[in-house]
Amino acid sequence: MYRAFLLVDAIGRLRHLMDWDELIDEYSPKYQKYNKVVNELVVQQFSELIPVRPTREQLSLHVLRTIFARIATYWYGPPEVADITYMAQIQGHRHILDPEVVPGETPQEIKDKQLNYAANANYFDYKIGRKLADGSFHPVGDQGIKLGQPGVTRLRAFPAPVPTEGPEETTPTRKGKGKAKKESASEWAPVTVRRHTREWYRELSQGAKARGSRQSEVDDAFLRTLLTQYVVSGQADAAVFTASPLSLDLAEMPEPTRDLFRQAMAMSGATDLFSFLLAAAEPEAQRLLHQEQRHTARSYETVATKALDTRDPGARQELYRRAVFSIMAYNQEHQLSERWYLSDRALQSLAGGRKDFIKQYKETHAEEIEAHHRALSIQEGFNRKPGKPQIQDLIALPNEPEAFPWGRSSSPSN
Q1: How far is the C-alpha of 354 from the C-alpha of 349, rounded, in Å?
Q2: Please, which residues bridge with residue 130 across strands?
Q3: Where is this region: Disordered (predicted)?
Q4: Contacts of 347 (CB under 8 A, 6+ apart)
Q5: SS3 category, 314
Q6: Residues 6 or more apart from 133 whose CB is under 8 A from it?
């Protein structure tokens, strides 16, 4: 998400660069020309981030309006405002909020008309969800999670509820002056926990969600269930137990081993056995992790190129490795004017994927790539070639892993 003033400034500059009147008619040649380019950029930039709807072949610019509205509602939509109402307001869809009413229409007919307008706006094609342990997503009903943060204000169209007037409670201060803060008029109150705790709680409570209820109501009902079980089990009356650090004196081990640990802990400055064991085990944990990562990287070398086109970061890095090798091999076999500069766009056009993954690979192999450019005198402007050929039309990635030197060495021998 970008700051709004940046987008407003960009639109202002764009209006000065081209004749905006020619784009009013969506059937005009210029409108169709720019619309095609914009939709191609949407597909290129967002295909890895936004899933395509089952009824569509690819993403389009209108999909981004839906995504924007959903994120904005999740962040800033007041919980007491219906999501469709908030999305219609921020996108300027007046007929959803205030439909044209024909005399004699019933309230239900007016409501149906609003829903028809909303359906045309594709408001419900996407929803905010939480990824579960099995990889699926569970929709969440939260709204306005950033309301109340510094710098965040409500839209004037949806002012905060005015608290009901009542007698003002005061508490005496040191000098008998001053007034106590008013209690919130809302019956809802926040509970602050760690993010991982909240995600665990939400995952456990997903089965308790009643149809049509908000996430806050689900959380409240599930928490009440937990508290009831806690009280019924008698744990609420149990004494508070504070776990002590792992004791070296109580652990079962030979006495020489115990003395060895005492000396080592004194030398390391550790105050308890658990902290000492964690510090001592960290190098071994890192070794095992790096060993597994190297094993995983070697396994990608034997995979077909088409099978690497996944969201797996490791597979992506192997895919870009093959793309870079193919471009370098092509450059070495062709004359200067036909060579390609290894830019982010060139790699994305040839192998696909997100630019942040491409940048990650290029940063890791920056010296190798720059050495290739210097050796063959390749400059950034080389990719702007006469006739504007596309790199994917000239260079193909072999699908067989044996087509690459490391793939041949990793394949099993006969």
Answers
A1: 11
A2: 138
A3: 157-189
A4: 320, 323, 324, 327, 358, 361, 362
A5: helix
A6: 203
Point out the least confidently predicted range of 50-64, 196-210, 365-379.
196-210
Read off the pLDDT of residues 225-281 as tens digits, 9 standing for 90 and up: 777 677 666 554 544 444 444 677 777 788 888 888 888 877 777 767 777 788 888
Q: What is the largest CA-CA distance in the chain?
A: 95
**Beta carbons of 95 and 121 less than 8 angstroms apart:** no
Cα separations in angstroms, 397 against 120, 298, 332: 42, 19, 16
Residue type at position 377 = S
pTM for the whole thing?
Answer: 0.37
- Single-letter residue type at 152: V
- Segments in 206-272 forming alpha helices (H): 215-232, 255-268
CA distance 185 to 107: 31
- The SS3 of residue 139 is strand
Q: Which residue in 99, 38, 32, 27 sits closest to 65, CA to CA?
A: 38
pLDDT band for position 333 (50/70/90)? very high
